[in-house]
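hey can u run this one w/ pyridoxal-5'-phosphate bound, need the structure tokens asap thx
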Amino acid sequence: MEGKKNISDVSTAFNKALDVIGVSEPSIAEHIRGELENQRSQLKLIASENYASPAVLLAMGNWFSDKYAEGTPGHRFYAGCEFVDKVETLASEHAKDLFKANYAYVQPHSGIDANLVAYWSILAHRVEAPFLNSHEKRHVNDLTNADWETLRQSLGNQRMIGMSLDAGGHLTHGFRPNISGKLFDQRSYGVDPETEMLDYASINTLAQEFRPLVIVAGYSAYPRKVNFAKMREIADSIGATFMVDMAHFAGLVAGKVFVDDFDPVANAHIVTSTTHKSLRGPRGGIVLSNESEMSEFIDKGCPMVLGGPLANVMAAKAVAFAEALEPEFEVYANEIVKNASALAEGIQKRGGRLVTGGTENHLVLVDVRDFGLTGRQAESALEAAGVVVNRNSIPFDPNGAWYTSGIRLGTPALTTLGMGETEMNEVADIICSTLKATEPKATSSGENSKAQYKLSDEVRDNNRRRAGDLLSQNPLYPDLHLL
Ligand code: PLP
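ok here u go:
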């Protein structure tokens, strides 16, 4: 994972950087060291996390951070952007090559920001621009107050459908607490109660009845492939814009695991993503499109909904995309999926029930009710045993979004460390033996607590040691030795 070349200077680079930081604020240098130690001591199965390469990390820590660059390459609101332009152009070119997209916007600071840019550009393209044209005006400032009020009402009156939260959707896909739920009137599509998988016929029925402007696909916790070609057909049949949020599985798209009908970029009008999950870049977002008429609106993301671009992070995105363009990344993406299947099999073999009965991507959703636990208890007990996971809702979850009935496991990070199917079997054993040895504590009224748990010290310590063994055989940043 240190890249193609064996870079022996990695230790020097980070040690010197920490020395410099330590002169200004020694505590922060210490906390940076502490975080590495922490990350090296736990099996990371958080499906949305990964380990970026030293080159990606180092590209973020420099004077590009000091430069303002609102606008796009060659069209900035600030002078002196010669090198920011080169960086942003390269990041965008790499993203286009990687995802086979005609257009890539690399400024969003995160996945949520990328989604905001997408919503803004869809509304601008589908609602605002036609309104201005029909009123023969070029700019909203040219409208009368009455016409502006009509346009505002129309912008606020649009509809969207997205995947329900308990089926694995994301808060930014039109849910009321999020700004997207205030912008759009949203209805959710869920999964089939029997198979727990997407049912395209019922998505189609919802779309035909509700007739949304936007159909959103993409998820945070759905362990299966999505047929984006079918979703596009549904969108086309009602004239909706089809958007895919591939934040979680962008690495599987870049690594050509999801192709043809399962390739979001080939099938959607607009695609958003994070760059730091399975894609293994810096924390950030991107927006891609193959529709030529969308790009002029997406380009205005900053300053319409985004703050000034982070040139240092765009530099790190360019480095990460260059890494993902190497043939090794396809091997990595395929390994992520093989590892998730091996982990799923290992858990099922030991009596765990998986939502949908398996996995076709990087994540595995375990129903922990069969272990007599809530997701909250399972998450805490596993952390004590050296395994970091998220608790997560499962479809039709009886325990709600706080306690939950599931845990979500993801393989991108452990795969980066070089672990394979044998290690996944050991991880499955660590997880299942911990959960089997965990029990809910009783509350003062004698009922089972949904948060407190009991786990024997012996099982906890033994599994912590086994997790540590796996980590010492597959260390994080093996060439990095901090002084
Ligand atoms: N979209 C999806 C599907 C996600 O899973 C997430 C992160 O969890 C996001 C968007 C938000 O990404 P970020 O935290 O980078 O804003």
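Residues 48, 110-112, 170, 172, 218-220, 245, 247-248, 274 surround pyridoxal-5'-phosphate (CB under 6 Å). anyway lmk if its weird
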